[in-house]
Amino acid sequence: MGSDRSKSSKNKPRKMIPKGLEAAHSMRDKFRNACATPVETLRKISQDMLSQMEAGLQSDGESRLRMLLSFVEHLPCGNETGLFYGLDLGGTNFRVLRVQLGGKEKRILKQESKVDSIPSEIMTSTNEELFDYIARVLADFVATEGVDCNLILGQKRELGFTFSFPVSQESLNSGKLVKWTKGFAIAETIGQDVVKELQAAMERCKLDMHVIAMVNDTTGTLAGGRYWNEDVMAGLILGTGSNACYVEQTSEIPKWPPSLPKPEETVINIEWGHFWSPHIPKTEIDDDLDAESVHPGQQVFEKLFSGMYLGDIVRRMILKLAEQACLLGGVTEIPSNMATPFVLRTRDVSIMHEDESENLENVARVMETIFGLKELPLEVRKVIKDVCEITAARGARLVAAGIVGIVRKIGGRKKKICIAIDGSLYEHYTKFRAKLHEALVELLGQEAAAKVVIELSKDGSGLGAALLAASHSKKDLEDKCDKQ
Ligand code: ADP
Ligand code: MG
Questions:
Q1: Candidate from 95, 118, 240 with most ligand 1 atoms within 8 A of CB, to mutate
Q2: Where is the Hexokinase N-terminal domain (predicted)?
């Protein structure tokens, strides 16, 4: 490498000759083989998902899959009536929402929401400042309630809280924070009950509201889907991270605490991001990405495909092709930011992968915008698109194998199984979605695959929390739909 681009910049831009193309092709082919997920492999992976789910239900610590109890007793079914609030906190942005439920026939009479973001100084301040900030936004939102909000005089407002950080729960309306992630760092919250903290802040703000349910985003998504469709049996997140949950019979949960009342069914949070199987195809690049990550050895399944990581796998492979196979032709320097983690985002990968233009103009545009690479020859663009395709296909097919594990765990309980999915990766990356569906058909066969329906449930997790508050509200016990 080592040529000086600035010297030639006054003249006509120097054309890069795809000198290393043969070596690059051979390296790309090796990468394709290393990432291959033939259907027999996917079958073994889905079997491992199923066995590890079963082991995790036996007792805590038995499996990589934590199979956490959600303590959800009643999933929403549409009968619920009244005014309920939701709060969805999973990162910098949080959403507050209000729904007016009209029961089976009328369903959602009115839904309003507002998005706010936590200022960065609050994310690292104190417990009181953080929860006071949230409670104040909630109180301001409550103050905008219209006259048509039919709260019965003297009745407390009720809230469902989607909290997407690791918590250890012992009931639906309590949960101790295990650790903060995603930029939050307030040491004193760790080990505290976040529901109590929120409740106390609401009291300080003179907000008369009661937290009925705290769930993670996966369970919120499942609940949001179930409200409309009783066939929804699982919830899946394919966004920054990835996780899944499903409806399980409590008779199938040996670790169910004997002291707790036993509903017929509940929701299990699989925490599938941490899944692993020896059959999963993994490369050196995945090992490097994991080793250099904030939590090495953790969430290794998620690191193969979620929105946070997919772009970085592709970046690492392009860098390797440039360094070891002279992909950039040897006439240009390797851009220094090509070694910077996360500069290439998953959204960029989807743009390049979905580029159907003859000259792969979008691939060229992304490479120029991010790395300042001009005039990449078409053959080089093609290799880059191939890397996107290989990485996304492996990820989507692994997700399909995981879904089949869940479908098999649910078994013959339902004629049709719907899975509610939330997350931008699934919503916006069309080819990822297509590969996932294609692999489901390969794994299950046409007929059985037709009975597994995947529904996008956009931002369903906040609404799902409000609906769970409704389905667990003490106000309308007769509205519960216990029989699924
Ligand atoms: P969160 O999971 O934090 O709630 P989202 O569901 O919006 O948020 O997911 C964000 C992730 O989705 C990001 O990591 C981003 O890389 C990825 N993403 C956003 N848009 C696209 C896109 N068009 N194609 C592929 N991935 C995308
Ligand atoms: Mg989300």
A1: 240
A2: 29-227
Distance CA(255)–CA(203), nearest Å, equals 36
Closest ligand 1 atom to 306 CA: 14
Do 62 and 84 fall into the same domain? no
Q: Over the stretch 326-372, which tens digit does the pLDDT of each residue have?
A: 998 865 689 999 999 999 999 999 999 999 999 999 999 999 999 99
Which residues line the pocket of ligand 1, CB cutoff 6 A? 90-91, 239-240, 307-308, 345-347, 350, 423-425, 428-429
Is the entire prediction scored with pTM above 0.90? yes
Same domain, 53 and 109: no
Pocket mutation for ligand 1, best pick of 304, 310, 425, 430 (most atoms within 8 Å of C-beta): 425
Q: Is 95 a catalytic residue?
A: yes
Alpha helices, DSSP H only, in 305-451? Answer: 310-324, 346-353, 361-371, 378-410, 424-428, 430-444, 446-449
Ligand 1 center to residue 39 CA distance, Å? 27
For 169, the domain range is 71-215
Q: How far apart are CA 337 and CA 370, in angstroms?
A: 8
CA 228 – CA 237 distance, rounded (Å): 18
Q: 3-state DSSP: the chain helix, strand, coil percent, rounded to 5?
A: 45, 20, 35
In this structure, the answer to whether residues 249 and 293 fall within a common structural domain is: yes
Residue 326 falls inside a structural domain: yes
Whether 164 is catalytic:
yes
* Ligand 1: centre distance to CA 156 (Å): 36
